[in-house]
Amino acid sequence: MPSAMPTFLARMTPHHWLKVSIVVALLTIVLKTLAWWITDSVGLLSDALESFVNLAGAMFALVMVTVAARPADKDHPFGHHKAEYFSSGFEGILVVGAAAAIFWAAVLRLMHPQPLQQLTWGLGLAMLSAVFNGVLAWGMFRAARTHRSVALEGDAMHLFTDVWTSVGVVLGLVAAGVTGWHWLDPVVALVVAINIFKEGSVLVWKSSQGLMDGALAPEPLARINALLERYARASEGAVRFDSLTSRRAGARSFVQLHMHVPEGWTLGRAATERATVEAELMATVPGLVATIELLPVGASTIFEQTEAQAQELLNTEVAP
To answer: Based on the structure, what is the number of domains in the chain?
Structure first.
């Protein structure tokens, strides 16, 4: 049985993980709301509110992952991969909104502290929900790396934030119960709100960068450049590469570059060599789409010539 479990998890798609996330969010909402009801703790109330955000985020992420999986069509010839960034950004906005609500509730309670009730049951329910979220977040992070899913990564990051939120709330309530300082409960809620706001802002920023066609991360770019350098050396200078550009869209990565070949090569030979390089690039970086334009050695595209002329004119105008 233990050996079968990793195989089972490996077969789970982003859709499966997000459906599980919805179920766990519903379960933790029940547990945390009950914990707040029993204790009347504003810290536990803040924890419960974040679980509602988990639910909304997971449901929206499921919709966006479904959209992102659609094949390219006439209106979207490059596919729908960027839909996952909307999921991450939406969840970030929800997190920021939850942080504002928690902050307001904490300020009101700080102005009017109240004694806490039945802490033992409340803390037990809060920690049980944290265990559920922690296990799910661990699995989703692993799945996000496997499937290169921005939506899964965003949901997992939020779940881990929720876990640390629950731990912080529990520690604060324990301290309040031991010392009798009831103001510790709203203070902990304020700290939680600030942390949640920070995590939500990070999610929004990352999603905005994805929508702006950010370049590939340094590590896959280094692997791509190393492969091109090896191929150029193997050709003993006959082939060279330049004008490499890259972008990432959800689970897909794209690179475009020029491959300069000797003028004496036949078109068939050049096309065969290009296909070999494209295949090796896509094998080196999972999810990569490589597009290579063939040019004779020493040639450049009209776009490059125009850009070079514009840069030369700019330098001339700037020069004293």
So the answer is: 2
Residue where the block lists tokens 């950004």: 89
**Nearest alpha carbon to residue 57 among 89, 9, 100, 13:** 89
288-296 vs 252-261, strand pairing mode:
parallel
Domain boundary among 161, 189, 211: 211
Q: DSSP assignment, residue 72?
A: P
**Are 111 and 176 in a shared domain?**
yes
What Å distances lie between residue 124 and 28, 131, 296, CA to CA? 12, 11, 71
Domain membership of residue 170 as a residue range: 4-211
Q: Which of 43, 16, 181 is nearest to 106 (CA)?
A: 43
Can you say whether the dihedral through the CA atoms of 24, 70, 157, 108 is positive or negative?
negative
Count CA within 13 A, CB hemisphere, residue 125.
23
pLDDT in tens, 157-210: 778 777 877 777 777 777 777 777 777 777 877 877 787 788 778 777 877 776
User: How much is the pTM?
Assistant: 0.60
In 3D space, the residue among 25, 44, 29 whose CA is nearest the CA of residue 121 turns out to be: 44
3-state helix, strand, coil in the chain (%, to 5): 70, 10, 20
Q: What is the CATH number of the domain that holds 128?
A: 1.20.1510.10
58 and 168 together in one domain: yes
- Tokens 């809620």 label which residue? 189
Which of 211, 238, 273 is a domain's end point? 211
